[in-house]
Amino acid sequence: MTGLERLLADPARADGWGRVGLLTNPSGVTGDLTPSAVALQRAGVQLVRLFGPEHGVDGSGAPGEAPDAGTDAASGLPTSVLYHLTDAETAGRLAGLDTLLVDLVDVGVRFYTYISTVRDVLRAARALGLRVVILDRPNPIGFTVEGPPLQRQEFRSFVGVTQALPLRHGLTLGEVARVLAAEEDATVDVIPTDAPDGWHPGRPWVPPSPNLPDLTNVHLYPGTCLIEALDASEGRGTALPFRLVGAPGVDAPALAAEVNRRDLGVTARPAYFTPTTSKHAGQRCAGVQLHDTGRPLRVLPLGLTLFTALEAAGAKRNPDWLQKLLGVPADTVPSSPDAALTALAGWQAAGGAAALSLRPFWLYPRQGDPS
Hints:
Elements lengths: L2 H7 L10 E5 L11 H7 L4 E6 L17 E2 L6 E4 L5 H8 L4 E5 L10 H15 L2 E5 L37 H12 L4 E3 L23 H10 L19 E4 L4 H9 L5 E8 L11 E8 L6 H14 L6 H8 L10 H21 L14
Parallel strand pairs: 1-2, 1-5, 2-4, 5-6, 6-7
Antiparallel strand pairs: 3-4, 8-10, 9-10
Helix pairs in contact: 3-4, 4-5, 6-8, 8-10
């Protein structure tokens, strides 16, 4: 059961919550795909307004966009967004509520912006005296931790609002909210899920954002999203975002060979594609399609291998964006795959230390943890 389903099984928990808002999107559904807003209405929760993160309540917004005021077709409730607002704007939109529920699928990666929206909500809630309740859901990529935390304060941005989290942080959204609440001197309640570590194969996958249509994309995302920091395509504007990677003029067989000579948990196939949107829209790109092999996926080594191999093929890096995504100074990221993977070992150690510091915020036991 998810946190939503636990609440639906015991709706008396909502007694005294007053006027309730819900931060959600299409991923907020029950096991039979009933939208959380509709299910909560049926359970007698006094919902008065829906809010969306990036992409909006209905999930129709493009990356970096969030459709604003409207009416939700399923529940009939008015909608608004809580994406990339000032503290005053966030507080203004939440004013008049007594409780805000959060029911979102997060994907376990520091730069996924739903974390940032939750941080903004907690700040506003502290000022307003608003109760915030996370209806927790599983981390679809599990409790494994990879990559460094943000190493410098100046690397913080809306794709990384805290220096506490490794790149792949291994927490549920409820646990992340507890970390953020401690940093913001705020309060948050979490209704836990009972299967937090990975995605149960019997539960349907509803994309939490337009470019994560299936679980293969989600598992690749922590690594191949690093290609955003190059003038190369990470597959946005194609049917296979984060699974197709390339740029005009790349030697596709050579790139595939560079990936396949390493045990990264995927097979790379030379591929050719023309994005319809985003980088290189309308241009023929050469690169690779990544295929799941069933072997353990080494997603950050994969991402760095692709990043550095594409850079060697002529793609230009964006140092500022690389620092914000990866979390380390851009001038410490080597330009060859072998050197980058050596550097990654040191960054992993920093990520492991950060992960240990997050243990007080865990809600769920971890395999091998003696406590």
